[in-house]
Structures are given as C-alpha cells and as structure tokens.
Amino acid sequence: MIYLDAAATTPVRREVLEAMWPFLTGDFGNASSHHDLGARAREALEAARDEVAGLLGCRAAEVTFTSGGTEADNLAVKGIALARRGADPRRSHVAVSAIEHPAVLESARALARLHGFSVDVLAVDAAGQVAPESLAAVVGPQTAVVSVMYANNELGTVQPVAELARVAHEAGVPFHTDAVQAAGWLPLDVRALGVDALSISGHKLGAPKGVGVLYAAGRLTLEPGLDGGGQERGRRSGTENVAGAVALATALRLAEAERTTAAGRLASLRDAFTARILELVPEAIVTGHPTERLPGSASFCFPRVSGESVLLELERRGVVCSSGSACAAGSSDPSHVLLAMGLDPEVALTAVRFTLPGSIDAAALEQAAAAVAEAYAAVTGIAHR
What is the pTM of this model? Predict the structure, then answer.
C-alpha cells in the first residue's frame, strides 16, 4: 500500500507510544486525584503543557488540552464569541472564511442559529486565499471573533495569517486560526503569527486520535463548551487525558525538530509528483495556490470523470488517497472549498487529494503517478503514453 492521505490521519510514532505507555499502565492515575498516583499524573500533564507552550511560544496557562481539533475549534469560535458578547451585547458578529473545516463553519452557524449572531463568510480567490482587504470590509466593533485557517485541509493553500490577524487587531477583534494541517509543517510561534487562539490535533502529527490543543491568549475569556469539574483552568471540564497530552507534546516536539528539513524534502517530492501526473494525464487540473501551499499537498480535478471512481481504481492498484476532507467522506455534494474558489460543481466532483506522509520516497510516488494514469485510463478509456 502507498498511503497518500496524511491529511486525514497519520500512524502513531514509536517514540510517542513509548512516551505515553507509562501513563496507560503503571502511572494511570487521575490527574485530579489527591494521592501519589494522581500527583504523578498531574506532574506529567503539566510537563506536557509546558512543552507544548514552549513550542508555541506562549505561557503554559494559555494551553488547553482537548479531545481533538474539532473541540479546539468549537471552544475557540463559540467560547470567544459568547464570552465577548456576554461582556458587550453589541458584539454579535463573527467572520470566518468560506473554506474552513466544518468544525469552524458549523460553530459559526450554531452561533447564528442558537444565539442570534450574524456571520460573514469571507470569499476566497481562485487559489483559495482570503484577501486581507475582504476581512477589513466586514470586521468592526460589532465583531466578536474572526477565524481563518492557517492551511486548508483539501488544497494545502496557506493563508496570510499574520496579515489577517493584523486587520482583525486594528478593529480590536481577536483572531483564531485552525492550524490542524499546518502543525509540523509551518512555523507555529503564536507571537510571530500574531494570533490570539490556535487549534492543533494530535493525530495529524503522529499522536493517537482523541487529543488536541487550543492555545488561547491569557487575556481572553472563553465560555466553556463543557460544564463539569472545572479542569483545564475552567476552560474544558472532564478527566484529563494524561497519556494523550504526553503523546501530543512528544509528537509536536519531534515534528518541530524535523520540520525545516522534512518540509523542504517533501516539497521537492510533491513538485516532482505533480509534474509527473500532469505529464501522464494532461487533462488534470491542479487546484490550490501554486506556491503558498503545504509541502506535502497535491490536489487535482480530473474533468469529465468521477473523483470517487478514480479513487476506487487507485485503491485497486494499492494507492490510498481521498477526494477531500475525511469529515465529508460519503457525501455526494461537491466540496464547499472548491465551490468557494469558483470551480464548476461538475468539475469539483472530480477532485482527488494526495497528501504525502513524511516517510514517502520518490520511487513510491513514481509508482503512484503511474497508477493515477492507469486509473484515469480505466475510467475514461483514454490512455496516455
């Protein structure tokens, strides 16, 4: 099998398993318990928090462990918006981009449906980027929060986050970014980015599914999404996932240590893979920004064929990839991301996304590109040399 769906999930790294194992076995205590076993769990939890904070360039008190990226996004968008409106009823507006993950889009829609917020959905250009001036046109004193993702999960397009955050701050509005896909591949220093909140998911980095992080600046008040025992400084109640926190901290540290070298290597492989597919299947259309994109992301449309049919043919040939976000798998609707970029719905239905894991090599990608050509020929009857 050639696995080219790293944006959906990644295998757990051996170093991560070894780091978390003691907290699944001998040191299995509840971090809120007042005995030695609980104290050891609490120590490990806070050490993980310190490590994540160091990697993000923030204070440990600004790091909240969650169950994953979806919860982190919900806590950021809903939590900031509801808290700020609670302090000032005029703040009843949110702005998000048209290509956000459903965790952000549905959070914004829930604020509108359940709490009466107005929502501006920011348009993107044909490469999938938000222009800072489009944000400046809608943000103001009435805005509770802005959320624009760092890098898109379907296209790999990277947003001008620092510029967008500056626009939001000029209007006195906090800025959140979903960095789930960016983590491990792009710089995450929250001070350099200028963001007030940032979400990460462990299983995109080589940690297990079920753990994430929300950085939220200490000056922000968040309405908690879960009520209970007040864990995570009152921002996220529930028994802490100590092993998961240790795993995420370890995975993030390893990814950050490797990032510069790994990203350069993967971008070169991605470019060669993209060029080879276009050589073998001239009808293919590359989607997303040509240069401002994640190093391992290559996305295409294959006009006049079903993307799902191409996927099936590729899997028969041992290549695993996807048509877009794993959260939308099984949907018969075209991608909201591709529609937002102006693609015709019929073309958008032909999308295939390849997201390369760090362990991939040139030989495997050459084999995968040949499989794409074979799959396209099988579906269309059009073979290319």
Answer: 0.96
